[in-house]
Amino acid sequence: MYTNNMMRRSNSLLVVTAAALTTWASPALAHPAEQGFVLLLPTTAYTIAGTLSVCASMLVMLSLRHGGLAKFFKSRPVKIRIPTFGVDLTYLSSLFAMIFLFGLISIGFAGPTDPQSNLMPLVFWTVFWIVVFVIQGTLFDIWRWINPWRGLAHYLFGDSDSLARLPKWCAAWPAVILFALFQNFLLADVAPNDPPRLAYVISIYWAVNFAGIIVFGPKPWLDQVECITVMFNLLSRLRPVTCGRVGMPGWQAVTEAPLDTSRAVFCLLLLAAGSFDGLNETFWWLDQLGINPLEFPGRSAVYWPNLIGLYLVLLILVIIYTFAIWVGTATVRFVHPEYRLSVSDMFRSFAITLLPIGLGYHFAHYYVTFLVQIRVTLATLADPFALGWNLFGLNAVKVTMGFLAQPDTVKVIWLTQASAVVLSHVWAVLLGHRIAEQNCKTARDVIMLQVGISILMIFYTIFGLWLLASPKGG
């Protein structure tokens, strides 16, 4: 994770030592104990129950007649009236978001050096990477309003022609590469939440992308190269309300399937990165590296293992996913040799069904971090430059992790996390079944096409719940 061993401990939910309990009782979060935590709940029973729920949803899908989900994934127009006052407010809000970002960057360079007292890492990692991510995939297109390039590009260039054009063959591959580099920074860098370091990286990233917008134009560059926009555009296809229409969550993903290959790989990268974000904190992973999780030596000691591990998880996921798709297509073509189902087409069609899993695990993985860090962020907002201010009276906000020492509270939190993982898999099952219906002529063929991907989803449910329940350290 991003917090340099400050928030890893909070995600594990229950202490294993009295020293950790003492730390949790403290009102400050800047220096939590170095011990690992173990979740003391009957998580095996919950994991079995969650997995059975996903299996049950698959069995329900088996009982449906062919095309039974079609009516559920139909969308209808919806009118959402937002006062415009004669201007496109999204461009104006984008401009203000850019100014706000520049303000955060200045705080990153000139503000407190403690990441827990500096708004740059707190806002970026807590508000942006956790809150905005979830809102974009579930509620509305918040990124369109806060994208820090759209507004400036619109007011400077309008509809003028670009200086050059991106070649069609590059698709969204540049965004895949940039997102992989972003994950390098998030999961392997020695200090991704160091305020000046983070401010420098974001400054360079903003400048490089704006230069690309000047040369190639805002829409082509943002849609193909800028990885955050590409990621949020993919997540937006999961919302029930999108593109002026409303329907079953994911209706747009089903309607627009298949993706192109680059965006399909982007979906796999997003899921793999989220999975490794949880895996690299577990006792199991640290044990593979020969590290005592209760005596974590620091992120610099695991830089290369984490970097290699990230790409190894991506490679393994691509191989397993491709094999699962091959199993399904081979089964259908064995029974119906005349069907022209290709592994490539199904690879691109079913990739979007992995996004609900990634979204659900993202929420579950960062849920505890959010519960604690949002209070730290609000408290820090009272005095962003550590000058003794008390803006908005936010100094009254108390930061405590004491609620993580209460078994009843911890149980509710873990069940919330587990429910998010399970429901996201059920969601993925529904999307997968509908996509299979669109590519097959009979109910039996729909079932056969999903043989491989269904097995993959069952095992991924088990894996996701295991990650949540596993002891964590480092």
Summarize this entry quickly.
The protein is mainly alpha-helical. The protein has helices at residues 18-25, 43-62, 89-110, 119-138, 142-146, 150-157, 173-187, 195-216, 218-224, 227-236, 251-256, 261-279, 283-288, 303-335, 343-350, 355-381, 407-439, 443-449, 451-469, and strands spanning 76-77, 241-242, 245-246.
List keywords for this structure.
mainly alpha, three-stranded antiparallel β-sheet, 19 helices, 62% helix, disordered N terminus
What do these coordinates show?
This protein is mostly helical. Helix content is 62%, strand content 1%. The chain is built from 19 helices and three strands. The chain has a three-stranded antiparallel sheet with strand order 1-3-2, with no helix packed on it. α3 packs antiparallel against α8 and α12 (261-279) packs across α15. The radius of gyration is 23 Å and the shape is globular. The N and C termini lie close together (10 Å).
- If strands are numbered along the chain, what order do they take across the biggest sheet? 1-3-2
- Secondary structure: helix percent: 55-70%
pLDDT below 50 for ≥5 consecutive residues: which ranges? 1-37
Largest β sheet strand count, sense and barrel closure: 3 strands, antiparallel
- Morphology: globular
| String of helices and strands | HHEHHHHHHHHEEHHHHHHHHH
Gyration radius (Cα, Å) is 23 Å
- The pLDDT mean sits at 86
Beta content comes to: under 5%
Question: Tally of extended strands?
Answer: 3
Backbone structural class? mainly alpha
How far apart the termini lie comes to 10 Å
Number of helices: 19
